[in-house]
Amino acid sequence: MPKITIEEAIDQRSPRVKPARHLLPSLFRRRVPERRQHNDLEEIEYIPVPGTQEPAPQSGGKPPLRLLSFLLMVILPFLASLIYYVFIASDQYVAEARFAVRALSGTSSDDKGDGSGGSENSGGPAGLLNMRSASQDAYVVTSFIRSTEILKRIGKKLDYRSMFTREDADFLSRFRSSKSDEKFLDYWQNHVSAYIDVSSGIITLKVRAFTPDDSVKLSNAIIQESEALINELSQRARNDIVQSMQADVEKSGKAYADTLTALNQFQHQSGLLSPEAQAKDSSTLLTGLLAQKLEFETRLFVMKQSHAEGSPTYQQLTLALQSLDAQIDKKKSELTGPENASLAKALLEYSRLDTDRVIAERLYEASQRNYDAVLAEALRKTLYLAVFVNPTLPDEAVFPHRITTPLIILLGLAVVWTTLSLIWASVQDHQI
């Protein structure tokens, strides 16, 4: 094959064609030797110019940054977590308990809907043992378990901090005693969980500690304090309702007692036990005197017509009529005499005091009935903490998950590394 020079080959070569741009980022493109384009340049024989030296071929390449970043960001943390969870992490035991907040609710006859026979079925033990779920109070209990208030109460009976600051626990799992109470509350919420089943209202309590005994002791202490809280809430609600009604009863009772005292004082001052009866008797007596007077006047009129004014009988009748007139005037003065001494005034005052007494008595009886009804309703709405799954001593440690946790960490690190690699590759492509 005839050899040609470089100048002739350059003149004969075809125009340059720009290579097509790859779609994938350069970081993920497979590095392969560039393929030579089949053109006339393959037949070119390069003749070195005298006095020049050919460039030495480059050996090696750029350092494998992807491999290095993968080792630093994924492999090394995974190995560290694997060593920690398999060989260093301390066993943690979980004690579980389940309970519910219940309230007694009585069933009245109005709830029956038929109005017949309801009162017979609503009373008695069956009505008192009708229990319902108190979901709102269940949320109060779960919030109480995650608060600092339960720590204050448990701290009076149990040294809960020593359970989480054990020297035999690993340095990452145990709590450092030098940290603040706020930090311990976060640590507490990570080791003590309480959640509610919305459909049933059941509260599931899980306590995680480094020994089985500590987890059970702490669970029992939490249940006791939760039960004490429910009792306090129930007692407080009952006292608030009862005290308001009791104040009305005391107020109406005092008013009733004041009316009785005023009526008693009036009876002592007037000397009348019952002015109504006294007025009735006086009216009856006055009516009889008036009847006798009418009879005497009639007899005297007859004797005058008979011209018997000088007879002794006429004189006796005249004296008797005068006596009757005096008695009648006295009785009239007792009934309608001066304002301060008349029986009518006493009767008016007595009627006013007795009316006040009757009204106060009715109000006192009504307030007493309302108080009894409210007290019975408050007793029916008493809250209870019903524990149906008591914490038991765990046989084996649930935490840590020595295999699954490192694998989850590996997966998460791989996702992060892949995301960062894609971002870096995109930046590199935009710079080309």
UniProtKB/TrEMBL annotation:
Stretches of the chain forming a coiled coil according to its record: none
Residue numbers spanned by region Disordered: 106-127
Signal peptide feature range: none
Keyword Nuclease: no
Keywords annotated in UniProt: Membrane, Transmembrane, Transmembrane helix
GO cellular component terms attached to this protein's record: plasma membrane
Protein name: Capsule biosynthesis protein
Transmembrane annotation, as ranges: 67-87, 407-427
Compositional bias of kind Gly residues: 115-126
InterPro entries: Bact_polysacc_biosynth/exp
Presence of keyword Transmembrane: yes
Superkingdom as given in the UniProt entry: Bacteria
PANTHER family (alphabetical): FERRIC ENTEROBACTIN TRANSPORT PROTEIN FEPE, TYROSINE-PROTEIN KINASE
GO molecular function, one term: protein tyrosine kinase activity
